[in-house]
Amino acid sequence: MSDPKNTERSLWLGPDGWSVEIIDQTKLPYEVAIARLGSVEDAARAIVTMQVRGAPLIGVTAAYGAALALREDASDESLAAADALLRKTRPTAANLGWALDEMHARVQPLAVCDRVSAAYERAAELVEEDVAANRAIGEHGLRVLRSLLETKKPGAPLQILTHCNAGRLATVDWGTATAPIYLAHQSGLPIHVWVSETRPRNQGAALTAWELGERGVPLTVIADNAAGHLIQRGAVDIVIVGADRVTAGGDVANKVGTYLKALAANAHQVPFYVAFPETTIDWKIQDGIAEIPIEQRDAREVTHVTGAVGRSKRAEVRVTPEHTAARNDAFDVTPARFVTGFITDRGVCGASAAGLKQLFPDAAINL
Length: 367
Ligand code: MRU
What we know:
alpha/beta; Four Helix Bundle (Hemerythrin (Met), subunit A); Rossmann fold; 2 domains; seven-stranded mixed β-sheet; four-stranded mixed β-sheet; binds 5-S-methyl-1-O-phosphono-5-thio-D-ribulose
């Protein structure tokens, strides 16, 4: 396996040139561990168990999963079986189906003997496209942050609230919501990030706090329930979150809890932006509440929490009475009317069908 310190990206090819290595996100922040994916089953398991997570990274991992399957058997049947296995791993992230469609389109028309190299080539392109898209989101989002900073007292930090992890760990690099944050920090702009913990799996507390902290971005973790209070008290200048699926009409599915933050931001006229690449848009649907599939996860994630005992030992403890019923909807939908704007790889637009159409005039809208 590669040097465990080489974790600038969330996913890369191993030294053998064909297996895939990932940062195992189930171990963070207690341990920076690398896991090796050597088969399509490994890739599917990594997505289901959330060793990799975040819509863009799920897509790229699935693309390599297809390549790994073809390496074992490059037939049509093998491609179809890999596609079916990977497609059902997590239902909400649009990037998953998009990446698998891309792989199919590149590989399926080819002769069997040409498919493996073509699959690896396309997966590697998706990796670089992801990095470039996120970097572009960063540049466009940076302009939004700069203009808000101009409204503040000189030197006072811009207070940014984010939810879940839409950071570099959720993508190959840069993140979506975090890309403008990283660029602002690198440019020396005064910023501070409120990181909401994101129960039940605590992606904010465990992952966003880890990755922002690792790169020196000033941050404070808050309980999810504190966000409305901070927004009401004027402690938040802007909310930026990521997205798992955005409809052609501008509705946004993101980690559960996003909707409540949008409502609070709307009530107090705090700008609420959603950052995502084009690959997160589902041009086939309009109404997010009716049409976006919401993943239901194991109730144990609600009844139990995982944390560190001492410096690195991981332990799970129960927080409810034994045998308590629990329900675990992993995402929610924020209607477009509560979103101030979208920060995409093509630029910033209003959260509406018209706004999206203006940035993506070539999109094949298929309603
Ligand atoms: O369940 P997760 O951790 O995969 O959910 C991740 C999110 O909701 C992110 O905000 C979203 O995927 C955007 S990632 C750039």
